[in-house]
């Protein structure tokens, strides 16, 4: 394909200066471009540049290196434009990106794509318009039918993109036609490059400077406005709020136009005064974030908190990372705040990671009360503009303390002093798709090390890897095992589902004990949390006559029934269809629901407790930006008696009136085909139980199970994490599971089952030949063998933990994958590498 832009971007005269550019493409290299003389004195590491990539793409890149060595195998294209007056990425970030690409077996461009907010990347689209000087009636050149068709279409449209022309012409020949029309001077082709980020501005007005010098001029102005009551009212309102004679600076700042209109002034009258030159209109950049005043004074730590803080300081003298195991309600937040204050006073920056900000709003609000506008929030549901604003706030020193989700590790810190990872055990710190498939806790520890900073990991139920490192002396370890204010831990009770079923006491999935305790709590006008780790009304539908189960058209899974939307939905690809009225296999209308989701739990509770106000918190009810907050605000205000939810309700909720937590089906968490199932069950049940009985109230936790004899329940009830850890670790050591080995999972995907299987087997053979201490398992068809019409096979590697072995094996692994993809049979096969799958 010919280069449409060759004539528009002529080669820049070279002064032997080149730049290596990181581009957001999954290719394992940087790209060298020549630096034009007009930007040679301004370019440097971390600047954004606009470059041409391939035949027609225009991409945003980040300068990684500036040098004088020309590429040997190709002629360097010129950098088209320098997009900033200052670098938006620093050298430490680029070093961090390089480590992440190496450790997580991906490409630097993929890391850059994940790291930069979309608002700092440019969107490009080739566009075409008629040449202003082109005479359609006398073109001067012969035109064929296809060219005339394009010109006629352009005549009806101010501009069009190339993709629209592809739809007009048979055989996708638009590029050749466009090239021909360019040569005939009939059209202009250009790249419509628009930055997605646009700063938020505020329209302001101020009194024209000629009226601020003398009272007499202002008096003459009022005389001129006599009879024009609305304009006079605008001027009076302005002068009431801005004393133009005593403080001329106030007039320079002006007044937001909205302030005047909100006070009843006519917008048209304001515009008339602007046209007359009485008022000046101007715009100012403003923040998208509301100013938050510091309202909380110094606080005093309890003796256990003070002792824990002292231990953390002592460990930090010798170790870079400390694990703080503090039971739920022990007051870890106050310790965090004290450490943050100390680091900020020293002039360094602080990053605090949370698994999901919207679910830990109490903690965020508390930190805002303590640190006010010094603190920035990097929210997972922020818009592109809001993310850019936080990025630039860190860059320019406005925010020295950031509280955010896993992507916060990519922000442009230059002097980190402390990183805190709250609830460090949470699986939501793991990025699954797309690459880089990183774990924010581990990435934060490396980021902290690069900045020579300290890392604090906080949790009530540590991840086994973190606890293992603490027990072996790699991390410092501090334990806080008293609730703040001597509040007592909740009381646990096990409810046997099978026993109640035998005695006909099970009603709508609730045991008698659970129903009684809920009713008692409602009678005391207290609140209940009900935990069920599955959303939807029921896992699936089934025909009573033949057993038919509706399946997703694109994935090997059954469709989940969602009653509120009256639809069946695939939770893997998003496929939806209406609920069938009859069986598609036998025609029977006896279709029933199997299993229990949060929707069904909500419905059952409304039937059992019709007087109760019930709400549900799951992915379906919290899709909107402030969905979480609305539900939590209602619950906190006492407008909800029972809150039903998935794992979302296990994190961060701190409500005084919650005295009962019910776990509907603990077996679903425990008996899951994953070596971490026991660890996750202990963590989730302990976390959700911690929501009960805060402050001076003793809460209760009811766990419904079919296997009350399981040892893990005894360990959860006694809070004996150490005993649970000891028994689980003995099994992991015996069967070679983390933390004794390093796990790497490779998923092989292709639309053809056989091609996917053959590629997976060939890769397995290539990996087996790598001379490293390892175990290679598979390939096996994934538990869900098809997702989005692609067939999946998995290969698992259990690798020796030593750093040299890991680095060597990962390099060899990426080389073997590249070798396979060079084979034309496997060019369309996707190989997804997941280091430390969680």
Could you outline the blueprint of secondary structure elements for this entry?
Elements: E1 18-22, E2 31-34, E3 48-53, E4 57-67, E5 81-82, H1 91-103, H2 108-115, E6 122-123, E7 126-130, H3 145-156, E8 160-161, H4 162-168, H5 174-183, E9 187-191, E10 194-195, E11 201-207, H6 215-224, H7 229-241, H8 248-253, E12 255-256, H9 257-262, H10 267-275, E13 279-285, H11 303-316, E14 321-326, H12 332-345, E15 349-353, H13 361-371, E16 375-378, H14 384-395, E17 401-404, E18 416-422, H15 440-450, E19 454-459, H16 464-471, E20 476-480, E21 491-496, H17 497-502, H18 512-523, E22 527-531, E23 540-543, E24 560-562, E25 567-569, E26 576-578, E27 591-594, H19 598-608, E28 614-617, H20 627-636, E29 642-645, E30 658-663, H21 666-670, H22 677-689, E31 700-705, H23 711-718, H24 721-734, E32 742-750, H25 753-768, E33 774-787, E34 790-799, H26 803-821, E35 830-835
Parallel strand pairs: 14-19, 14-20, 15-17, 15-18, 16-17, 18-19, 21-31, 22-29, 22-30, 28-29, 30-31
Antiparallel strand pairs: 1-2, 1-4, 3-4, 3-5, 6-10, 7-8, 7-9, 11-12, 11-13, 23-27, 24-25, 25-26, 32-34, 32-35, 33-34
Helix pairs in contact: 1-2, 11-12, 22-23, 25-26
Question: What key attributes describe this structure?
Answer:
6-stranded parallel beta sheet, alpha/beta, DNA replication, Arc Repressor Mutant, subunit A, GIY-YIG endonuclease, single chain, 838 residues, 35 strands, ATP-binding, disordered N terminus
What does this structure look like?
- This protein is α/β, with parallel strands linked by helices and 838 residues long.
- It is 33% helix and 22% strand.
- The protein is built from 26 helices and 35 strands.
- The protein has a seven-stranded parallel β-sheet, with helices on both faces. It has a six-stranded parallel β-sheet with strand order 21-31-30-22-29-28, sandwiched between helices. The chain has a five-stranded antiparallel β-sheet with strand order 2-1-4-3-5.
- The longest helix is centred in the last third of the chain and has 19 residues, at 803-821.
């Amino acid at each position: 394909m010919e280069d449409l832009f060759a004539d528009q971007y002529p080669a820049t005269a070279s002064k032997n200066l080149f730049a290596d550019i990181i581009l957001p493409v999954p290719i394992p290299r940087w790209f060298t471009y020549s630096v034009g003389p007009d930007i040679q004195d301004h370019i440097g590491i971390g600047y954004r540049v606009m470059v041409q990539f391939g035949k027609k793409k225009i991409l945003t890149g980040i300068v990684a290196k500036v040098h004088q060595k020309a590429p040997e195998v190709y002629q360097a294209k010129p950098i088209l434009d320098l997009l900033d007056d200052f670098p938006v990425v620093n050298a430490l970030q680029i070093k961090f990106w390089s480590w992440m690409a190496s450790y997580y077996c991906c490409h630097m461009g993929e890391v850059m794509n994940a790291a930069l907010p979309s608002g700092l990347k440019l969107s490009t689209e080739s566009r075409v318009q008629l040449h202003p000087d082109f005479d359609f009636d006398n073109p001067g050149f012969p035109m064929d039918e296809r060219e005339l068709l394009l010109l006629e279409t352009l005549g009806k449209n101010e501009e069009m993109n190339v993709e629209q022309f592809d739809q007009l012409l048979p055989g996708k020949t638009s590029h050749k036609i466009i090239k021909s029309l360019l040569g005939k001077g009939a059209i202009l082709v250009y790249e419509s490059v628009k930055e997605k980020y646009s700063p938020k501005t505020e329209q302001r007005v101020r009194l024209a400077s000629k009226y601020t010098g003398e009272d007499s001029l202002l008096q003459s102005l009022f005389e001129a406005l006599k009879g024009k009551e609305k304009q006079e009212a605008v001027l009076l309102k302005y002068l009431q709020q801005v004393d133009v004679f005593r403080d001329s600076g106030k007039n320079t700042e002006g007044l937001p136009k909205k302030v005047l209109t909100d006070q009843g002034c006519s917008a048209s009258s304001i515009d008339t005064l602007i046209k007359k030159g009485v008022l000046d209109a101007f715009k100012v950049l403003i923040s998208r974030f509301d100013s938050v005043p510091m309202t909380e004074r110094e606080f005093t730590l309890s003796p256990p908190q003070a002792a824990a803080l002292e231990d953390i300081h002592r460990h930090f003298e010798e170790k870079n990372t400390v694990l703080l195991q503090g039971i739920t309600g022990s007051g870890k937040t106050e310790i965090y705040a004290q450490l943050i204050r100390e680091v900020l006073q020293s002039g360094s920056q602080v990053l605090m990671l949370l698994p999901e900000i919207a679910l830990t709003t109490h903690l965020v609000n508390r930190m805002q009360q303590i640190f006010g506008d010094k603190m920035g929030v990097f929210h997972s549901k922020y818009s592109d503009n809001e993310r850019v604003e936080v990025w630039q706030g860190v860059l320019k020193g406005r925010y020295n303390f950031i509280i955010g989700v896993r992507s916060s590790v990519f922000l442009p810190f230059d002097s980190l002093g402390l990183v805190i990872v709250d609830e460090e055990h949470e699986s939501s710190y793991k990025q699954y798709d797309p690459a880089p498939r990183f774990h924010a806790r581990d990435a934060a520890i490396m980021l902290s090390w690069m900045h020579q900073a300290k890392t604090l990991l906080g949790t009530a139920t540590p991840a086994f890897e973190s606890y293992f490192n603490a027990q072996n002396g790699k991390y410092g370890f501090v334990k806080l095992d008293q609730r703040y204010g001597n509040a007592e831990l909740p009381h646990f009770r096990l409810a046997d589902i099978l026993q109640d079923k035998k005695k006909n006491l099970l009603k709508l999935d609730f045991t008698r004990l659970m129903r009684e305790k809920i009713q008692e709590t409602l009678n005391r006008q207290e609140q209940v949390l009900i935990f069920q780790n599955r959303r939807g009304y029921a896992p699936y539908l089934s025909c009573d006559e033949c057993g038919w189960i509706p399946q997703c058209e694109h994935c090997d899974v059954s469709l989940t029934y969602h009653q509120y939307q009256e639809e069946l939905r695939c939770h893997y690809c998003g496929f939806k269809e209406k609920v069938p009225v009859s069986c598609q296999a036998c025609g029977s209308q006896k279709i029933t629901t199997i299993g229990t989701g949060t929707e069904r739990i909500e419905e059952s509770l409304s039937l059992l407790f019709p007087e109760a106000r019930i709400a549900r918190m799951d992915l379906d009810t919290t899709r909107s930006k402030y969905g979480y907050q609305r539900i939590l605000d209602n619950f906190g205000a006492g407008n909800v008696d029972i809150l039903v939810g998935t794992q979302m309700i296990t994190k961060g909720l701190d409500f005084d009136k919650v005295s009962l937590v019910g776990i509907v089906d603990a077996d679903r968490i425990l008996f899951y085909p994953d070596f971490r199932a026991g660890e996750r069950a202990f963590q989730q049940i302990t976390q959700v139980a911690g929501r009960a009985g805060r402050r001076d109230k003793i809460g209760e936790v009811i766990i419904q199970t079919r296997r009350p004899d399981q040892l893990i329940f005894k360990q959860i009830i006694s809070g004996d994490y150490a005993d649970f850890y000891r028994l689980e670790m003995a099994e992991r050591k015996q069967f070679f599971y983390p933390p004794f080995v390093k796990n790497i999972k490779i998923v092989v995907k292709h639309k053809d089952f056989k091609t996917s299987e053959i590629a997976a087997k060939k890769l397995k053979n290539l990996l087996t030949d790598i001379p490293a201490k390892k175990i290679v398992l598979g390939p096996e068809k994934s538990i869900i063998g098809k997702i989005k019409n692609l067939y999946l096979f998995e290969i698992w590697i259990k690798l020796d933990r030593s750093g040299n072995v890991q680095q060597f094996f990962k390099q060899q692994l990426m080389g073997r994958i590249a070798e396979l993809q060079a084979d034309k049979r496997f060019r369309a096969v996707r190989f997804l590498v997941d280091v430390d799958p969680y």
